[in-house]
Amino acid sequence: MAEHTISNTASKEKIWTKDFALICLANFFIFLGFQMTLPTIPLFVQHLGGSDQLIGIITGIFTFSALLLRPYAGHALESKGRQFVYMIGLAIFVISVGSYAIIASIAFLFLMRVIQGVGWGFSTTATGTIATDLIPPKRRGEGMGYFGLSGNLALAFGPALGLTLVGKISFTQLFLICSALGLVALVLSTQIRYKKVEQSSHKTVPVKFDIFEKSAITPSVLLFFITVTFGGIASFLPLYTAQKDIGGIEVYFLIYALFLMVSRTFAGRLYDRKGHLLVFLPGTLMILCAMMLLVWLPNSLVLYIAAALYGLGFGSVQPALQAWSVDEAPSNRKGMANATFFSFFDLGVGIGAIAFGQIANAFGYSFIYVTAAASVFISMLLYIILLVNSSRKTA
After folding, report:
1. Per-residue pLDDT band at 209 (split at 50, 70, 90)
2. I need a surface site. Which of 4, 16, 276, 313 has the fewest CB within 10 A?
3. In whole angstroms, what is the distance from residue 279 CA to residue 281 CA?
4. Structure confidence by residue, pLDDT tens digits, 105-142
């Protein structure tokens, strides 16, 4: 009997179950399809005759449509179930990315980017919640780090693969491949056993449709100022390096992703044991240094060093902040906590992309990374203020 109890306890603490492996695999394929489009959409906009300003807007509008749908996705996860939201999101993603293959105008691309954002908002909010359901609470930081590896593996190959293919095949073929990868994720999603939705015991109290989980606001705001940097990396770094006649942009994305994966192997466990204090500030400092190196950017070597620092920094900070967001939320609000977290993620990426399009047009590409560095510094400053206020309350 005692042995049976011990066995059950060990089983409950196990991270790598069949369902967890399936959600990681599905996440890999959807992210691979997404990451292949990330550096190639700006090139596609240029191909269609668009300016730097249009590149920023078309990149950013995707994240804003995702942002607007995330609160609904968070509530739907708790009311309609994980599988419904996840599969709807994946299906929309597959159809919208596949439609890029027949697009011949910027106006139609703009519309389909909005629709893709809806699918992305649904699917990524769901997948983070599904992973949270499957990870033992005491190992959440570690588990979310492993789950993040699935996206990081896609990041290791996606941008470089997309940039390589776009020089050898047509945009039509490229986007059909990306859509097919999303379809693989959709098929895998049908094999997962999903957690049943917890129904509230207070059925007489009407449910208020809110848009945020309050307990997740603090880590999400900190994340916002960090993900602003994504707009400068994904949308303009290929164009910036081409302007400076610096080669190796495909290698940049590979190095970034490899160091991102390295950070996942220890940062989550460090968060579980020591909390966010020993993860956040070192991680954001590395991101800040990476942005300043991109401002300078004299050659490929500096580009690669920036990639390593950015990968280590973001790979440490992002899963820690996500675990922090979910840890503080009630058990029936995990979906909304993830929705809040990714809403701020999207908001940072979207504002960054649109703002950087204007900055690039007015001041040049290098000033993008000056602004990005300032945004990271704001996040660090807010965190330090939070720590000071917290220590005063406990004193």
Report:
1. low
2. 4
3. 6
4. 999 999 999 999 999 999 998 998 999 899 998 888 88
Q: In the structure encoding, which two tokens stand for residue 266, read together?
A: 């220890």
pLDDT for the residue numbered 253: 87
Are 59 and 42 a contacting pair, CB within 8 Å?
Answer: yes
Find the Cα–Cα–Cα–Cα dihedral 154, 160, 162, 166, rounded to 10°.
-170
Q: Are 299 and 169 in contact (CB under 8 A)?
A: no
% of the chain with per-residue pLDDT over 90: 57
Look up residue 43 and give its amino acid: L
At residue 196, φ and ψ (nearest 5 deg) are -70, 145
Token pair for 69: 């749908």
Contacts of 149 by beta carbon, 8 Å cutoff, 6+ apart: 24, 261, 264
pLDDT higher than 70, residue 395: no
- Phi, psi at 168, each rounded to 5°: -120, -25
Question: What is d(CA 388, CA 265) in angstroms, rounded to the nearest whole number?
Answer: 30
SS3 395: coil
Residue 143 region, left (φ>0) first, then alpha (ψ -120 to 50), else beta?
alpha
> Over the Cα atoms of the chain, what is R_g?
20
Burial of 111 (0-12, 13-18, 19+ CB in 10 A): middle
In 3D space, the residue among 143, 102, 120, 105 whose CA is nearest the CA of residue 19 turns out to be 143
